[in-house]
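So, can you check?
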Amino acid sequence: MLNLQKSNNKTFNELNDYVLRVKNVISATAAATCIIHHDRIVNEWYSGVHNNSQGSRLVDEESQFHVASIRKTYVGFAISLALYEGKISSIDDFVADYLDDTDTKVLGDTTIRHLLTHTHGLGDLHHRLFLPGTDWKYNNVGVNLLIKIIRKLYHMPLSQLLEERIFSPMGFSQTGWRKERHEKLIWLNEQYNDEQGDEANLFVSTKELAYWGYLHLKKGAIHGKQILPREVFEQATTIISPPDLEQPLPRNGFFWLVQDEPRARTELGDDLPTGSFQSLGVTGCACLVIPKYRTVAVRMYNQTGPNPVGYDYLEDIKTFGNLVSKYVEDL
């Protein structure tokens, strides 16, 4: 089980203060941060309660947040694993070659690369917004198709695959798809059908999300043991976006946003070094990895309402990344 040594560094007090201010602005009840630097936890901080009800549980290291779209990085890992194991020949394979129950006329020349990078152009399974590879549009159509492909290739649901390959070997007991409410979940009052990984009901503790980023930072090698092949993590965090996208548009690996140069529409701060990668969920949770500084930074929120007037989520997440970069650069 992964259990890094901890030594809180006062350097990050200002970062925690920033996260707390944003928590209040977006009307979240819960917030947390965890920073791993040079194989040590140098900042772990919790604030607030699970919800607004009287007597609500205080947020602590056992609290599991709804990480929303960060779940896509777990899907990306599974696709990278399938590619490494030869179950997928190439990310440039046509999606229609793997799914025989989908409208091939709408899919057309859409490839797995397009699904992983939000460049598929599908508005839904019945109409498209643009030709594949020509633009970038964030939605869940691509990830849902990939989840179907994973189930078909491995003959098991996504959650079972990840439990066998990652969660159990790593000792991740605070990561998983949850259908039923319990006291350690920061619940969002949503209804879910199952725990198979098909829905956006992945809950993760702050530290285990940081460990998820750390696993990618270390390319699968933990305490000198290669848990999974290095190549699985390398290809998942390398830019694979079509080369002709307009400059302001984000660049993706296997769903991770990856830094190459400052871009107006990416969620990565301009000050982050090349090769940094990050994922953000609509609840405000984020996982940032900065290989140059051997750093992982996680922040957690439970935002459920719309963004308030005057709050720019892109400016906020970029500021978070820039602050992390600033504080760890000289540690």
Remarks:
- The chain has a mean pLDDT of 97.
- Residues 123 and 129 are 6 Å apart (CA to CA).
- The chain has nine helices and eleven strands.
- The first strand starts at residue 30 and ends at 37.
